[in-house]
Amino acid sequence: MLSALVVLLWPAGIAVILAVTALVAKRSGRSSPPATAPMNGHHGGDLLIAVRAAWSSIVGMLLILVVGAVTVYALTSLLGVLIVHAGPSIDKPIYYWMIHHRVHFWNSAMVRLTKVGDTWTTWGAAGAAAVCLTAFYRSHKWLPPVALSAAIFIDHYLTLALRHTFHRIGPPNSPWGTFPSGGCDRIFVFYGLIAYLIWREVSGSRRAAVWSAGVVAALGFSEGYSRGYLTLHWFTDIISGIIYGCLILAIFIATIRVVIGPARTPGTETAPGIPAAMSGQQAPRLQ
Asked: Which end of the chain has less neighbouring CB within 10 Å, N or C?
């Protein structure tokens, strides 16, 4: 009976997340019409100015991300101190309970499902998204490849730094360092950032933002559940990975908004004669 309840926890959790997402999206009101494509057609001088502005934005973005990464490291380290000291009293009972209530067929399904958050899976998704979004973006074409490449670099080396700082041993069947959970972290960092970049260019509406966040949250829950079910991480490491990934994602979103400006709202377009790549702010609404 308890084994069945553990299995049902996964679809129940996904259903709750999507139901809450639908409710919040409904309250946000109907989406506005999609944004009008900005007008391009640069002249030589305008293009040179646009290139210089792009390089300036890239340098500024990377500098802000470095500061943000240091901040995330400090906050996660504070969390790590708490987890190392108080975590075992929470983790061990959950670990032994899960070991005794696993179902073979569901275990096999979770082995496949948890690969969504694997390193090469998420890096491959980030690379493919960078290529596609670069071709798709109407302005600031440098943003997807720069943001996603920086996400790979920062997430990888920041996680290594945290592992070297704490040296926390994982469960018996996964003894290598597991604080914070890399799989849960990568779901929010990469899929969350991809969703945000798509949302900025395609919609910019509140309803689309809610649904994007809901889908990423469902993926994060699924990854956390599968890692916990397979006892690849301690429970507190899974929660820490989710918090850690959300912090990194928040830093990237905030940085993009500072450097580029907020997302283009539906029904706006770039004013004629202004190169889109030169604009670091929301395009003005035409009267």
From this structure: C
